[in-house]
Amino acid sequence: AVLSGGGHVSATPQRLSLQLHAAEEEAVLTTPLMQLAAEEEAVLTAELVLERSRAASLQEVRRLSLYGLSLRDVSVVSSLVNCETISLVGNRISTLAPFSACARLGELFLRRNEVSCFEEVTHLQGLRLLHTLWLCNNPVAESPEYFTTVCSALPRLRLLDDQPAIRLRPTDRGDACDTPEEDLGASAGEA
Question: Which of 33, 72, 98, 172 is close enough to 78 for a disulfide, judged by CB 3.0 to 4.6 Å?
């Protein structure tokens, strides 16, 4: 800082730069993303999806990634019919129902969320292109039957969490039921 004759601090280029940088940091903290993270019942909106994906419409979104925003309601995802990759890691999502409409979805990353029952996986059974699913660090993944049950319900998976998905023959299921839906119901009741 440079003192002028009257004892006041004059504006130097460095000082202006620091003031502008501080103002930019403050602006970043007040973006919709940061405000969203502070909300109790955070809702993913179409506007936020379009902002983050830089798409002109929800139908044009191919990839979506939003980390750690405490999102609970992601129902707008059901409008992302052409989305191929969704990463919503570190949120508070408890249902997989909105993802069932994402017909082109190949990769779904939902680590560190709140999915707690196997019935939620049934929402993904119609996703013929889904080959990669990450649900580790969700309550459902704590079950000893997690890996086998999810692979059984989603036989097209190639990767579950960080491991190759297994292919189960009906005889490999032991005492489990014959259909994935029944397997999920039985496992969920035990959990």
Answer: 98
